[in-house]
Amino acid sequence: MSQDNKFHTQFTKDSDSIGFVFMKTYSSWHNQIKNCLKQQHITHPQFIVLATLAYLLQCEQEITQVLLADKTNIDVMTISQILENLEKKGHIIRSVSSRDSRAKSITLTPAGFDKANQTVPLVEHIDQQFFAALGENKNRFHQMLLALLKV
């Protein structure tokens, strides 16, 4: 332990730290999303995978766990666990890929498609309300987030 027992930071107050403010902002938004989705009996990670799968199925013939991991930026092992839970709930079906017998192909069940269509508008509404505080800066903020992701 340090001899001077002083906390060393470049910031005078916590609100001066962009990382700390970002984390608090994310937590506020995330709590609203989690509370909404809890009422729909789905977790936020499950929602992300379900919504991404529904979106990808519009333009892709076959969706694999690896593709879902890439598109969501969630590691493959975690995707596998999320898919296992979605499968138990009857929202998805996993089968052997027609292109690669080592890969799993993922598709939505009618119940999964319904769940995606039910929850996406709820989350989009929360997004609209939460980010409305940015006013005319909303699009600029979006572009800045994309720049941070280097998309």
Automatic annotation (TrEMBL):
Residues 15-151 form the HTH marR-type domain. Gene3D superfamilies: Winged helix-like DNA-binding domain superfamily/Winged helix DNA-binding domain. It holds the Pfam family MarR. It comes from the Bacteria. Transmembrane segments: none annotated. One of its GO terms (molecular function) is DNA-binding transcription factor activity. InterPro entries: HTH_MarR-typ (IPR000835), WH-like_DNA-bd_sf (IPR036388), WH_DNA-bd_sf (IPR036390). SMART domains: HTH_MARR. Keywords: DNA-binding, Transcription, Transcription regulation. The keyword Ribosomal protein does not apply. The keyword Transcription regulation applies. Coiled coil: none annotated. This is HTH marR-type domain-containing protein. It comes from Snodgrassella alvi.
